[in-house]
Amino acid sequence: MSDTKTALVISAHSADFVWRAGGAIALHQAKGYEVTVVCLSYGERGESAKLWKQDGMTLDKVKVARREEAENAAAALGVNDIRFFDVGDYPLDLGRETQDRMVDVIREVQPSFMMSHSKWDPYNTDHMNTTQFALECRMIAQAWGHNPGQKVLGAPQLYLFEPHQTEQMEWKPSVFLDITDVWDKKWAAIQCMQGQEHLWNFYKNVAENRANHFRRNSGGQAGGRAAQYAEGFQTIFPTTVDELT
Amino acid sequence: MSDTKTALVISAHSADFVWRAGGAIALHQAKGYEVTVVCLSYGERGESAKLWKQDGMTLDKVKVARREEAENAAAALGVNDIRFFDVGDYPLDLGRETQDRMVDVIREVQPSFMMSHSKWDPYNTDHMNTTQFALECRMIAQAWGHNPGQKVLGAPQLYLFEPHQTEQMEWKPSVFLDITDVWDKKWAAIQCMQGQEHLWNFYKNVAENRANHFRRNSGGQAGGRAAQYAEGFQTIFPTTVDELT
Amino acid sequence: MSDTKTALVISAHSADFVWRAGGAIALHQAKGYEVTVVCLSYGERGESAKLWKQDGMTLDKVKVARREEAENAAAALGVNDIRFFDVGDYPLDLGRETQDRMVDVIREVQPSFMMSHSKWDPYNTDHMNTTQFALECRMIAQAWGHNPGQKVLGAPQLYLFEPHQTEQMEWKPSVFLDITDVWDKKWAAIQCMQGQEHLWNFYKNVAENRANHFRRNSGGQAGGRAAQYAEGFQTIFPTTVDELT
Amino acid sequence: MSDTKTALVISAHSADFVWRAGGAIALHQAKGYEVTVVCLSYGERGESAKLWKQDGMTLDKVKVARREEAENAAAALGVNDIRFFDVGDYPLDLGRETQDRMVDVIREVQPSFMMSHSKWDPYNTDHMNTTQFALECRMIAQAWGHNPGQKVLGAPQLYLFEPHQTEQMEWKPSVFLDITDVWDKKWAAIQCMQGQEHLWNFYKNVAENRANHFRRNSGGQAGGRAAQYAEGFQTIFPTTVDELT
Amino acid sequence: MSDTKTALVISAHSADFVWRAGGAIALHQAKGYEVTVVCLSYGERGESAKLWKQDGMTLDKVKVARREEAENAAAALGVNDIRFFDVGDYPLDLGRETQDRMVDVIREVQPSFMMSHSKWDPYNTDHMNTTQFALECRMIAQAWGHNPGQKVLGAPQLYLFEPHQTEQMEWKPSVFLDITDVWDKKWAAIQCMQGQEHLWNFYKNVAENRANHFRRNSGGQAGGRAAQYAEGFQTIFPTTVDELT
Amino acid sequence: MSDTKTALVISAHSADFVWRAGGAIALHQAKGYEVTVVCLSYGERGESAKLWKQDGMTLDKVKVARREEAENAAAALGVNDIRFFDVGDYPLDLGRETQDRMVDVIREVQPSFMMSHSKWDPYNTDHMNTTQFALECRMIAQAWGHNPGQKVLGAPQLYLFEPHQTEQMEWKPSVFLDITDVWDKKWAAIQCMQGQEHLWNFYKNVAENRANHFRRNSGGQAGGRAAQYAEGFQTIFPTTVDELT
Fold first, then answer.
1. pTM of the model
2. What stretch of H or E contains E18?
3. pLDDT-based confidence at A198, cuts 50/70/90?
4. D144–A44: do the CB atoms touch at under 8 Å?
5. Which residues of E are less than 8 Å from D162 in CB distance?
6. CB C220 within 8 A of CB D155
7. InterPro entries, from UniProt (chains A, B, C, D, E, F) (predicted)?
8. Where would I find the beta strands (DSSP E) of E139-196?
9. Which of D178, C26, C152 is nearest to E45 (CA)?
10. What is the reported pLDDT for D1?
11. Which chain C positions have a beta carbon within 8 Å of B140's beta carbon?
C-alpha cells in the first residue's frame, strides 16, 4: 500500500458527484489524494429527461451518453478512477451482490474519508437508500471476519452531500470547504452535464452562497477568509482531535 | 494584542468548568493558550449541599469555601485567569448588567473559542440559561456599534460542555478531545472539589468511556489513537476548512 | 373597518424585511393588500459595520442613515406604512412597554397574516427573540379582556422568514411564493441597502434557487410553473381548507 | 385524458382509507374528482380479529368479507374505482412486482394529490412501509425513462393520514379539511366496517375534535368557520403559491 | 410532616387544571393524596371571552366569576387546597416575586409529583412559559442554600398536561392514566366551566379516545384493561424502577 | 400455559445481551421470570476481531467459540433458554424465513416485555435493522390471522438497549433499573466475553454512572435510593397506569 491518501465518493446517479462534491473532489485531487468515484447507476431512467425527449432514444443510448458526460466531468475534476456499477436506477438494485461489490471497493481503496447522500429524501428515495447502503457497506468492510486476510477498514468519516432542497432532506451542514482554487474545474465539470443545463446556474448560486457562509463562520464582519466558492457537508460521525479551534 | 491564543469558558457555577472542561482547559494551557474562566456564580445555594449540612453555615462562608475550591482547581489546571461574577445562583441574575460585564470580558479576551453548557437542561435551568446568555453576549461582542473603537469579536466556535445526563439534555457530541496527557491535572482539579466527592468517580468513568469513543471514531478495531481519557463537546457552529479528514 | 386586506411584518432590524420578505411584501401590495412593516430597531449597533468604519460616526447618525435606507426600500416595495420602534438592538428591548406597543399595532392592523423570523438563531438572538415576542403579542391581541371594546385579533398565520443559514436555524420552508412579477421591485429595494452591498448577490441567488424549488414542487420535469424568482416561508400554524390541492 | 381531476389513496389494509381519509375522499368525489383507492391488502391477517374468532373461518373467507366491507364503504363515499392488490398483510409484500403494479396505477391515474400513512408507526410497520413504498413509486412514476412514451407524473402532494396514536407516530397535521358536508357519507362508510365496531365512536370523536382545531385555526374566538367535522393531514412537500393567506 | 402523599398542579389559567388533569386530580384525591392546585391567573383577560361579551363587564367581575368556577370545579374533584396567585394573564408575570411564592409552595407541599403544561405552545405562550417557570422553581426548591433549614425538595416527576392541539405543541404522551372510576367527578368539574361550554364535548372526546389508547397499550386485541376514560401525560424525567413491566 | 412471567431479548450478535441488558436479565430471572434470549447471529464476522487475529481461524471455529461464551454468560445470568438463529452477521439475513422463526418464538414465549437495540445506529446497521425487525415480528405475532388457533400476542413494551455511543444513536433513556443486587452476576457474565476484554471496564463504568442517574432521579441530594449499579432503557410505547408516581 502506498502513502497516497485516498477518498471514496458513492454517487447514486452518474451526475450527483459533480453537483454535490465536485469541488471537494478536485481540491483533494489537487492536494495529492486519489479520489475514487463510484456511480451506482447512470441515472438513465430518472435523471435523463432531456435525452428521453429525443426521437429513437433507447436505454442503452441514454447510458452511453450519461457515461460519457460523467467521464468527462471526472476528467475535468482530475479524477483518475471512476467506476460504474450499472445496477439500474429508479429504483437502484442494492441487494447482496451490489453490497459485495461495494465492500470490495472500500477494502481496496481504504479511503481516508467517504462521501454520499443525505439521510432522508422524500423526492428521491434512491438518494437516501444509497446512504443507508453506504453505512451498511462501511460496517461490513470493518469486519475482521469478512474475507479474512484482507486489510480491514478503519473508521473514515462519512460526509453527506448537500441535497437539492436541504431543509426538506433534514440535512444540516457541519463543515464548509473553500473550493475557490478549484472552482474553474468544478464549473468545467458542471458544463459537461449537457442534459441538465437547467441546473448549472443553480449550483453556481449554491457555491457562491456557501462561500458567504464560509466567510461568516470563519470570522464574520471582523474578518474571515475571503472564500468565493464553497461546498457544505454534513458529518455523520464525531471527530477526534488534539486541539480545539 | 499579543500572539497568544486565548479561550473563554463560561461556567454557570464554580465547579462546572472542572467536571466538564477541565481536560480541555489544561490541554490548551499546556499548548500555550491563555484560557479565561468566568464563573457566573459559586453555586453557593444550589450546589453546596455538603457545606449547608454543617452547623453555622452562612451564604458568605459557602461562597468563600467554593471560591477557594475553584481557585485551587483552576491552579491545578494551569489557569492564570479565573473571574467570579457572583451574580447569585438558583437562579442566576443574567440581566443587562451581567450581560455588559460578560461582553467586556469577551472583547478583552478575544477568544479563539468559547465554551459553555448544553442548550436544554430540565434539571438545572441555570445551565441552559447560561448558554442562551453566552450566545447573546457573543452576538453583542460582534457588533461594530457596541462600544465603537473596541476590537470587535470574530466568529469563535461555541463548544457545549458534556452535561450530567447527556440524553436528557438533548446533547450530542461532535468532537472528542484526547486529554490523556493532562489527565493527572484534571484529576487533581477534580479532587479540589471537596464538597462533591460523590462525583469524582463519575467523571473519571466519563473520561475513560469517552476515550473509548475517541478510539472507536479514530480507527476502531483497525487501529486508532490509544487515548486513555477524553472529553466530548457539541459544536454549535459549522467549521470552515481547507481539507477534509 | 375597510375591506382592504392587510398584513403585518415584524422585522428585528431595519433591513431584515427586505432580504427575507421583500417579494412577498411587494406582491401583496400589488394585489391590493396594505402591508404594515414594523422595524423594532435600526440594526444600528449590530448590522451597520460599514457605517461604523467611517470617521466621526455616532449612534444617531447611523440610525438616520439606516432609517433612510429602510424607508427607501419600503417605498420601492410599494409599502405605505413602515414604523420604527427604535427599541435598541444587540439586544432588543422587548419588555412590557414594547409588547404593549406591538399589540396596539396588531389590533389596529388586523392582519390577514403576519411574518417574522425563525424560531432558533444561534448567530443572532435578536432574531429568535423577535419570533417569541411576535407569538406572545399575537396571543395578547386575541384576548377579549385586553383593552375590552377593541376588535380582537382572529387567527392569522405566522410565516417565518428565510434566515441567513437556514439549516443552522432549524428552518424548513412549507410554502414557496412566486415573486417573479415583482422581482424588479425587490431588487430595487435590495439596492437601497447601501451598507450591506456584500449581501445583494447572496439574496439574488437565494431568489433564483428558491424559484427552482418552486418549479420542482409545482410539477418538476413534467411541467410546473416557470417561476424565475421565489421566496420560501415556514408556517407555524396548520391551515384550514375546503379542498386539497 | 379528460379534464376530470383525480386523486389516489394508497391504503395498507382495506379499512384504513375509511377511518383516515373517508371525508376527504367523499368531499373530493362530490367536487367532481375521481378518487382511486388502492388497498394493498385486506388486512386479512392483522385487522380482522372479530372474524377470526368465528368458527370455521379461513383466510379466503376473511378476504371475501373484508373486501365486501371495503367495497360497501367505497360506495358510501361515492368512489367508483377501488382496487385490491391482495399482496398479503402482516407483513405486506412490497417487492419489485408490487412496485411495478403501483407505478402503473399512478401513471394511469395521474393524481392531483396522493394520500398514504404516517412516516413512522412502531405499532404497525405495514403502515410506515407503505409510506416509504408510496414515495418510491411516486419517484419511479416521475422518471422519463420508465416505460418511455407513457405520460410521466408531475409533482403531486403526498398527504399523510392521521394515524391511530398521532404523537407516537411523530405525525403533525399541517392542514385541516372541513368535511361537515359529507360527514353523513363518512359515517355511513364507517358503519360498513362491521368487524371493527369498537372504532366507530373513536373516529367520530376525532372528526369532532379536529373540527374544533379547524375552527380555532380559521379564526378562533374572534370568528372562524363553524365546521362540525374535519380531518387532518400532514404534507410531505412544500406548497407553491401565488398569494399567502 | 404527615404520611399523606401530596401532588402539585401548576395551572397557567384557572380552568387548565380541569380540562387537562381533572381526572388525575380526582383519582389521586380518591387514593388519599392531598393535591394542591395553583392557578397562576384566572385567565381573566385571555380565556373569558364569553364573560367579556356581557354588558358592563370589568376585570374584577371576570376574576370573581372565574375564581368561583375554579373553586367549584376543584370541589367537584375533591380538592381541598386551591390557591390563586393572581399574577395577571396574557402575559403572566413570572418574575422573581412570583418565583419566590411558587418555591415556597413547593417546599411546603413536598409533592410526590408535579404537573404543568407542554414545553412548546405557539398559540399560548403563557402555557409554555409556565412550564419553564415550573422547572426553574423545582430547581430552586431543591437547593440546600435556598432558605436553609427548610426541607429541600426531592426529585419529583413533572408530568406535562395534554395541550389543546398536541401535535402542534410537540407533546407526546408517555403514560396513560385510567380515570374511569372518577369520570363522573371530572365531568362535573368540566360542567362548572360555564364560560367555556364549547369545550365540554371536546374534552369528553379526548378522554374517550385516550381510553382507547389505554386499552391498546395495555393489551390490544388480545386483552387489556377496559378503560372507558383516560388522560395522557408526557414525563420530563426518566423513572427509576426495580422491575420492568 | 403456566403462571410464570416471561421476557424476550432479541440480540443482533451473541454478546449484545450481556453488555446491554445483562443486569435486567439476571434481575428478572431472580424475580422468577423466565427470560428467553435470541441471538440472531454469533457476531462471527463483525465482532470477533480478537479471534480472527489468531492463526488458522475459520468461520466455524469463531462461531463455536462465540457460542460457548454466550452460553456461559447466559448461565452466569441464570438464563435457562438461549437460542441461536445463526442467520449470519454484517449483515444479518432478516428475510421472511427469519421473520417466521422469530414470530414463532414470540408466540411461544408470550413475553411480558421485549428488549432490543436502538432505532438508529450509523456505526452498526445490524443493530438498527434488528429493532425494525423486532417491531415487525411483534406486529405479526399480534395478528389473529397469523397461524389461527395459536395464542396471539398482547401489547408488550419494547425496551431499547443502551447502545455504545448513546447520543450518536439518538437514544434517550426513559427508565433506569437498579441492578445492584445482581451486579456480581452481570460482572461474571461480562467476564465470559474473553474476546472483548477491552469493553469490560467500559460497561462497568456505564453501570456505575447510570446508578448515579438512578440516584439523582429517585431523589437527588434530598435522598433517593443508594443504587450502585444500574441499566438504562428507552421505551417505545407509552405505559398504562392506575396511579402516577
1. 0.95
2. helix E16-30
3. confident
4. no
5. none
6. yes
7. GlcNAc_PI_deacetylase-related (IPR003737), LmbE-like_dom_sf (IPR024078)
8. 157-160, 175-178
9. C152
10. 47
11. 45-46, 90-91
- Asked if E46 and C236 come within 8 Å (Cβ–Cβ), the reply is no
Please name the helix (run of DSSP H) or strand (run of DSSP E) that holds residue F9, with its range, or none: strand F6-11
Comparison of pLDDT for E223 and A64, the residue scoring more: A64
Q: What count of other Cβ atoms lies within 10 Å of the Cβ of residue A143?
A: 24
Q: What is the pLDDT of residues A74-129, one digit of tens each?
A: 999 999 999 999 999 999 999 999 999 999 999 999 999 999 999 999 999 999 99
Nearest to F74 by CA among F17, F32, F154: F17
Give the pLDDT mean for F2-25. 95
CATH architecture, range B5-235: 3-Layer(aba) Sandwich (3.40)
Nearest CA in chain A to F129: A136
pLDDT over 60 (residue E1): no
- Residue owning grid cell 398514504: D116
**Cβ proximity of D167 and A111 under 8 Å:** no
DSSP string, B194-240: GGGGGGHHHHHHHHHHHHHHHHHHTTGGG-----SSEEEEEESS-EE
Cross-chain residue pair C222–D112, CB shorter than 8 Å: no
Q: Vertex E14, ends E12 and E18: CA angle to 5°?
A: 100
What pLDDT band is residue F223 in, cutting at 50, 70 and 90? confident
Q: Which residue of A has its CA nearest to C223?
A: A49
Overall average pLDDT of the C26-53 stretch: 96
Minimum Cα–Cα distance from A206: chain C residue: C205
Is chain C touching chain F, with at least 3 CB–CB pairs below 8 Å?
no
Tell me the domain boundaries of chain E. Answer: 5-235
Give the integer Cα–Cα distance in Å for D55 and D42: 20
What does the pLDDT read at residue A1? 47
Per residue in A144-172, pLDDT tens?
999 999 999 999 999 999 999 999 999 99
E82 to chain B, closest Cα gap in Å:
26
Q: What is the DSSP string of D143-178?
A: -TTSSBTBPPP---EEEEPP-SSGGGGT---SEEEE
Angle between helices C59-76 and C16-30 (to 10 degrees): 30
Is the ipTM value over 0.90, yes or no? Answer: yes
| Alpha-carbon gap, residue D153 to D104, rounded angstroms | 11
Using CA atoms, how far apart are residues C119 and C171, in angstroms rounded to an integer?
A: 8
Q: For residue range B166-193, list pLDDT tens digits in order.
A: 999 999 999 999 999 999 999 999 999 9
Q: Are C135 and E122 an interchain contact pair (Cβ–Cβ within 8 Å)? A: yes
Phi, psi of E47 (to 5 degrees): -130, 35
Residues 6+ apart with CB under 8 A from B225: A240, B178, B214, B215, B218, B219
Chain C residues with CB under 8 Å of E120 CB are none
What are the pLDDT digits (tens) for F168-216? 999 999 999 999 999 999 999 999 998 888 899 999 999 999 999 999 9
Q: What residues in C contact A205, CB-CB < 8 Å?
A: 205-206, 208-209
Q: Where are the alpha helices (DSSP H) in chain C?
A: 16-30, 49-52, 59-76, 96-109, 125-141, 183-191, 200-217
Taken as a whole, chain A contains a residue count of 245
Torsion angles phi and psi, residue D108, rounded to 5:
-65, -45
Which residues, including other chains, have CB under 8 Å from residue E115's CB and lie 6 or more apart? E7, E8, E9, E10, E17, E21, E24, E158, E159, E160, E161, E233
Amino acid making up residue E96: R
Contact B202 F209 (CB under 8 A): yes
Gap between the Cα atoms of D238 and D242, Å rounded: 13
Q: Residue A181 has what DSSP assignment? A: G
Distance from CA of C232 to the nearest CA of E (A): 20
D136–A52 C-beta distance less than 8 A: no
Q: Which chain D residue is nearest to residue C151, measuring alpha carbons?
A: D222
pLDDT along chain D (245 residues), means of 10: 86 97 98 98 95 95 97 98 98 98 98 97 97 98 96 96 96 97 98 91 97 91 84 97 90
Indicate the length of chain B as a whole number: 245
